[in-house]
Amino acid sequence: MTDKGDRRPLASRNTRWAGAIARWLAARAITPNQISQASMAAAALAGGAFVLAGQGTGGSRIVFLIVAILCCQLRLLCNLFDGMVAVEGGKGAPDGPFWNEFPDRVADLLIFAGAGYGIGMPGLGWAAGGFAVLTAYVRELGRATGQPSDFSGPMAKQHRMATITAAAAISILEPLWDGHNAMLIVALWIVAIGAALTALRRSRTLIRRLKGTV
Predict the structure, then answer these.
(1) CB 72 within 8 A of CB 164
(2) Would you give the end-to-end CA distance of the chain in angstroms?
(3) Tens digit of pLDDT for each residue in 25-76?
């Protein structure tokens, strides 16, 4: 787990409800690594729900989209609480840095690939997931060279999850105007292009930092 000076800035981390839940988790036999691992399970459920939503119609499609939405948000909650339990709860472990990063990369691939298969465009889903992973790679490359983490967008993790969640929510209403999967297709294109731009932006910033020009 990263230290307090190199963490993603999150307003929710300072809320009362987040602090209360983090303290409750820290007081029990629950480790930050377990919470990180749970994020992969949530992402797998979200990805599977997106696939099934693409195969379903009517009520079943709506149910699967709701499950996908809830699991995407559960993934984010796991990402929030693993850090809070590790840092504020003082339960960090030597292998924490691995579990802090690896599940996030798996989660991005599971969610976006699942959405891609659900709309019948697996290549687009894998592209969105691949570029999402690339944004994190550039950030961690910067850390490996002694630079501070770059959490800039336009398509950082919270932006990616907000985009796919909003698209899934709107997709629940799409049959009303015969726009089946239109919003999910648009969302995956936004994530893919936005994540690619984010990786390029972070790369440019890293190069400038390494050259000492920023």
Answers:
(1) yes
(2) 27
(3) 988 889 999 999 999 999 999 999 999 998 887 888 999 999 999 999 999 9
Report the alpha-carbon distance of residue 27 to residue 70 in Å, rounded.
Answer: 25
Residue with token string 């294109």: 189
> What is the DSSP-derived secondary structure letter of residue 34?
H
In terms of pTM, does the model score above 0.85? yes
> Residue 165 to residues 73, 111, 115, 172, 201: CA-CA distances in angstroms?
8, 11, 11, 11, 24
Distance CA 12, CA 24 (A): 16
Tens digits of residue pLDDT in 132-154: 999 999 999 999 999 998 999 89
Does the domain formed by 11-211 have CATH 1.20.120.1760? Answer: yes
The structure tokens listed for 91 are 């339960």
């007081």: which residue's tokens? 27
Rounded Cα–Cα distance for residues 67 and 166 (Å): 13
Provide the CA 45 distance to its chain's centre, in angstroms: 14
